[in-house]
Amino acid sequence: MSLSTADTQPSAEQTINATSKANDAARLPGARTHYSDFFSDIVKRMKPSPIHSLLHLEHHIPKPISLLAGKPNPAMFPFAGSMSWTSRDPHNPEKIETLTMDEDLLKLGLNYSETPGLLQMRQFLEEMQEDEHGRLKEEEGWRVTVGPGSQDLISKAVTALLNPGDSMLVESPTYAGIMPMFRQLQPEFICIPSDAHGLLTDKLREVLKGWPSDKPRPKLIYTIPYGSNPSGFSATLERRTELLKLAYEHNFLILEDDPYYNLYYGSSPRYPSYFSLEKSLGLLDTAPDTPKDLLRVNTGGRVIRFDSFSKVLSAGLRLGFVTGPAPVLDAIDKQTSAASLEPSTLTQTIALTILRSWGREGYKAHTTNVAAFYRSKRDTCERLLAQYLGKDGLATWDTPEAGMFMWFKLHLHPGMDVESDTEDFIRRKAVEKGVLALPGSMFLPEGGKSAYVRLSFSVVPENVLEEAMRRLRALVIEARGEA
């Protein structure tokens, strides 16, 4: 017995070809070879999962009869009907409403799905990225992959791009939580200092200009452009523009880790992302050997952007997503399919139910509320810092405009020109007094001493934070007396 379709219905092959145009850039010779020199030996040896690499066909063939994956039958799951929970109205947070995930979406959430993430979730996120950053997926060769938090996706991206001994540019100070993963890949860190205006691009230009001719050039740079962890600083438009131009001039990729993008609370309009600027500046790469019978398409660009829902929906959902050139995301997906198959579909359907209910305007309203909340927390923290450590010159700092951290310099010696080191002060003396913070040295990829301290003001009540400042003041005065 053979299966056939009506004459008016396209064949499976025709349908696959027609629906895959959005990913043509990843398949074109120019797009594939454009990134081949960036990939690590590990990812070059990896093969896609023989099963998960075919699951997308279930969505692209009309009326498919799928005998592919060993999916458990949902009738055997102890969940029935729909799933409901209460949620705050993004336009009026005091108002509580009930959200319901319908039965069909719940069934999807309870079973296996595609490695890059649930199709409906990816479609929502890609439309959101187009709207937020002014990029066009169909024309530019980028796409979205969902992961269990942005840090997992960063880990896989760097694994896909670095071999031991490769040079990696990284801003300093930088996020301490990512450094153990970076170090296990054994790259050579080229640390570029930053200040209150972001990464010092003049220093970066000096490093690149003086790069030895017989040494392989850096493949990538890791940067946190908004509310940088630990400093809370955000890169200015001038610095962002200069970094992008350097990436194209010196042939490296930008890993834009932006979990605090929606926690910007500065008084000036928010600067565009690197992902957005790449297009508006007219820098997008174009596949050099695109077949003549196809439109000339962009390869996706030099920016690999990482977003997170942890700070705005729930850290426990463990949901993040990466946006970037399709070949690079394919390399990330290879690792996921070999390690965990896919991100959790249930947490994706929970988030998708919320996002669909709110719509883009509702999501913007919610993130505006989130940013306002953290601005208030920042203001309280800075007021107490000034009251207890600022008025006598015990500490100095620049005001952060995004995120949830305060980065301040302690003056543990009476002479302001004497550089302090907060390592022992924070790890031993502060701990003995019941105050837990982080010494600045933890955020230096190259190691060394630091006079800075990072504290998080996100969850601490005002009275508790004031007591912490009172204790720190006493400790600094004591240290200065000893000095």
UniProtKB/TrEMBL annotation:
Aminotransferase class I/classII large domain boundaries: 111-472
Pfam families to which the protein is assigned, alphabetical: Aminotran_1_2
Molecular-function GO term, any one: transaminase activity
Coiled-coil region(s): none
Region feature (Disordered): 1-27
PANTHER family assigned to the protein according to its UniProt record, in alphabetical order: AMINOTRANSFERASE, KYNURENINE_ALPHA-AMINOADIPATE AMINOTRANSFERASE, MITOCHONDRIAL
Annotated protein name in UniProt: PLP-dependent transferase
Taxonomic source organism: Pterulicium gracile
